[in-house]
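RESIDUES AND SHAPES:
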Amino acid sequence: MRRARSPIVRSLCAVALLLGAGACARRGTRAPDGPTSQIEADAYVRRAIRSSSEGVILMPSQRAERVFELPRLNEIAQGLRGPAARCFLQRAIETMETMERAEGGEQGYAHVPEGQMKVRTRIAPSGEVVRTEVLESGFVDEQMEPCIREVLEEQRWPPNKSGNTHYIDVIYWVSLGMQREAGTEATALHVRREQIAAGRRAKACLQGRVDAGRYEITGLNLVDREGGTMVNRIDTLDLPEPIRACLATALREIRLPRDPEAFVRPVSPTVVFDVDRDGTVRVEGEKWLELVELEERARRAAERAALAAEDPELVDELPAHRPADPVQPGAAGLAHGGLEPEPGASEAEPGASEAGESDPPPAEPPPKAQDPGQGGLRLDLGGRRRGDDA
């Protein structure tokens, strides 16, 4: 029996747009050219999902493959990743919860809306999506499927002149991915510094607005590959909404080191505030952070002193006074707005007459006679004409 063959885009490697390094660049994965069997296509999709935290693959039908151009499908797949990732972020910040950390283990999270799905998108000749059908789905979160389908239904495809409706299967997957540095001591120290610094910025949120006591603020930040917080929330519910919004703004400044291979990195900050009766707000660990910052400043000062000792001529700034370039008076000087008097010079130049007119400049001395023996001197060797002696 002849195997059923499924036409995939001629180069899946160009259409499978993955975050960071694509699946085609890892583990020797290479998409075949031309018609591909369904088994080979499924194997490629599985390898792509294992190789990246999120991605989009477009698998057009045989007729759609002849109608739509590969570069345009490539652009559409790239454009679908952003809206689909927003679906994941919106659900993740609402559903994710921290799990109890085992002794010596990494921080775990429950109810992560990760999974994958395959949706058949039927496209009218005008480029509008007629309808979408979920063929396969591995999302446990029930809200992910309708959100992804809405993204696909709003997508505009290139119009075709065939007058027929074509379909393209869209495969999307998403997960938190590997958290390479999550459980390291360096990351734990960095997060502690960041959350204490955020607590110092958040003092104004509590000062004069809450009663005296101890307040433990917990939350969740979802950080991107560049280290910035994309979205966050405050889990402490026993505070008024304006105070919680103020705290969320302060804790949104928490950053992580850049990781080009990451997709979404969750951080669970915990900041403890002590509010005195007089309204003074203190952050737990604030003294420790001040000592760490003092040590860093002292170390940088010692490094600068060592560099200055190695190279005394090394200066960090320009000299306070820079001599002006010599400018000859005349048309060139006037062309730039005239000559400005030197600082400290008197308004009347020496040698000026009482009437305010300056003496004429001295005549230039005649040029010195040149040695005829030197090279480059042009000599007039022509004979004298009659009448020159007259």
The chain has ten helices and 14 strands. The chain has a mean pLDDT of 76.
